[in-house]
DNA sequence: CCTGCTTTCGAAATATTTCGGACCCGTTCA
DNA sequence: TGAACGGGTCCGAAATATTTCGAAAGCAGG
């Protein structure tokens, strides 16, 4: 029948013939239906790519995609708000709208993975930025099938290899914090981590340990604790540390909010910071600047991370070639007033560097 | 041909036959295409109504108006974040989506009032919640003409009479704060307001003055200052107060963030709180709980305000009768550890009440 | 080897889009 | 005046796309 099989019209049927499947099957792939085997889907996808076929629906919805959805666990942390600020900033310059969404607030109709992904398409969303752990692989899968751009920010759990993610150099940050304390002359340095299962906590811990070992200090198990990223955790851990026979002279807290708890408990027990105890936080949120005393903290470029995440989405959307699926932005130590040399013993050897600027 | 014309399957073709047009024509009407004569469209529409036919697309698609837009000045204040949390909470239960938008981040194309309003319609938005001052009357006008529900939360400027607004009982809050300090025995009580032009600052100030006058204390001008709702303002004002010949023994700050600045400056100058200086904040954000010492603060039901705002939108959307255009939610004083009786002079007359619970 | 279940696929039914032609109307020109 | 022309609107045949639904194939568990 079709004399000129190849160059004619570029229709669904043509693509189907090329791959050797039926038209409905190609249609299903184009529209992200589920009942297509992975292998078949891949072949069709390839042909689609080659021929550049677009469904009429795709053809007409040219401008769309002016919105991204951002999903948070909760907005109770300064961390999340900062990331959101970064996203908003980039959204403003790139003229995107931002749909905010909070997990844990699951509503009347919890909306399965498939519906949720389909909805993204229906509403013409450019993609999704996830700042939470609670995003199952089923959901990621549904997105991938529909080729919806998705970016995970600083995932608590390591993300699947083929998902884009944005994070910070937690290991380097942990090392910087501990090194700073070592340089001030501290030898007894505690670490209060976040959830021990979280990727980022672990990286910070290992950075801390690396610095200690490099400085010839043994890592004491009883100086290391973990718990949620909340002030109460700082309070609890601080109590435990102060109850020790040989309490540390410095603390590296895994987040500013934990450090805030430490600060509160220190005041209650009349432990002066930084004179009697040095304290380093992590995140570099406004909390760190406004606390009493202002907190030395490892600053994460949270806004930058938000910006990057959106930029990632936009580049995926525009079909740009993306070299790396993972971006890791640099953390840096901001020295404020919560760290000082330890009181009793001046460090041996060379004199300690004076307060950095 | 079709023996049983009516009761069979309810397909597009059936409807077309009923009206006496072709299937494509019905399809066009269903999908809102333009190339159908008005008369024809009406006849088809009637048949559609009669038969109850729905296109597969309509069958699965969601009902419109599932999104509200929320506009903030910035997200740098805990205040805004709390309100947003309230909105998100209500959004979850009412299955609405939230589009977040920040003014001051004006983008490449600033989008005039009319376009902006029109866009709300085009995108099927249910309404808008404004948590900012920067929303001109031209913009409000454009919304009103199109009958787009809009709610202003705690407007800095008094809103036009015919715009819905949600606020808190600032006057009562100011009075409660000052009364609390009076009851503790303070007589020299300073007020650090927010922007003097802001409605809410003024209300708090007047509440404070009312309490003072009721307590027979004269209002000292030099104890009253104003400025932005930021820690730096608290620092500045605190410096000024401490430089006074006769500094106050208590401070009522117009917001928790201002109070945080006061706290920082107090520590720097070794003024102990609450022993040497009592301090009351306003807002009741998390900052107040986590500060050192925890802040006595006039708590605003910020989340509740957010919830109310959205609920207002929803009720307008559903055409419910709305009795009042203004809702004012109650503030209440939360006593924590930053207030105590003044050191030097025990109050005359009756003994001061012990620390409230 | 059956049985019941699931997965995957495509034929047929259904829906939508494209595109050309009919029709109407005003304008131009013989 | 009326035929010829141009441009617009509206419709439907045919082309194209999507959905439904059942059949085939694979896969436990008897």
From TrEMBL, chains A, B:
Residues 10-64 form the HTH lacI-type domain. Residues 333-357 are annotated as: Disordered. The keyword Membrane does not apply. It comes from the Bacteria. PROSITE patterns: HTH_LACI_2. Keywords: DNA-binding, Transcription, Transcription regulation. This is LacI family transcriptional regulator. It comes from Paenarthrobacter nitroguajacolicus.
